[in-house]
Write a structure and sequence with these properties.
This protein has 339 residues and is of the alpha/beta class. The chain has helices at 8-15, 19-26, 34-46, 53-60, 76-91, 105-117, 135-143, 166-179, 195-210, 228-241, 252-264, 283-286, 298-314; strands spanning 65-70, 95-100, 122-125, 147-150, 161-164, 185-189, 220-222, 246-249, 274-279, 292-295, 323-326, 330-331.
Amino acid sequence: MKKGSVTIKDIALELNISVSTVSRALADNPLVKPSTRAAVKELAKKYHYRPNFTALSLRSNKTKTLGIIIPQLVHEFFAMVIRGIEDFAYSNDYNVIICSTHESYEREVIDTKALINGRIDGLMACISKETNEFDHFSEFVDRGLPLVFFDCICDEIEAPKVVLDDFDAGYKAVKHLIDQGCTKIAYVGGPINLFINRDRLAGYNKALSEAGLNTRDSWIIHCDSGDYDDGMESTRELVQAREIDGLFAATDMLAIGAIKNMKAAGLKVPEDVAVVGFSNWSIGTLYEPSLSTMSQPGYEMGQKAAELLIQQIDNPDQEFNETVVLHSELLIRESSIRD
């Protein structure tokens, strides 16, 4: 046998059978004798034969490959989304290619073009915090390529979407703080251009309004990101002012950064300030006090996004523009429970 990549022609030559018989044997076609199928598979395994997916895709007009664009890889929520996508994709004989934009609009544009040129069958995308223009996604629609948005979405492109009810989650978080006796509740969130942050803030305002409570401009903080350093830097003056007795943070890391400032200022959590985060990162259960938070069903979101995408691929003549709304659960821990 020759060195390098082995083809079905090589296997056919060695077994003195036709190329079409080898192809049918590898596909478990019952028209091929069991002994011949076994011989073909044994030889294919011996020489590490792999199908030529480029040739297969040209014949079928499908690559059996799905694209994923996410803002961050080192992120518990997105890790669970990817796991959900992969599990659903692999169970349906699809592979996935993952691109991380690192929250960069420029990287997002480059990645979408690379995936289109790479002949993926469809794309699942969560937009970056910098993204305010969406022409690079319009190309998918113009070419008739299946597209699904999840989590951070845009309304400018008509495509199926999988989202969390962030308004309801924000409302539940603040309602819980009110139920614990908080009357001066602050909000710290991520970039306001993203729907998820606008909706969480709207839920915060709704809960306060229903309870007849007021807020102040200085109690509402929008950060460039949602990380720990942002949490510390953005809440330092808020904590030092000692005006609030409750805080809803749009990410767990923002919440932990704020709690760090509270501890440094001699404030007790939850006795002086009760805190609720968002995302249910594992660090929240290890932190002292353990962090109350709103869950994010990342795995379920990934599964649903992959399902919607493959539905489009399998039914190219149908129009899809469904929005699937998932729900968050309040997980009450030490940071918000008051006696």
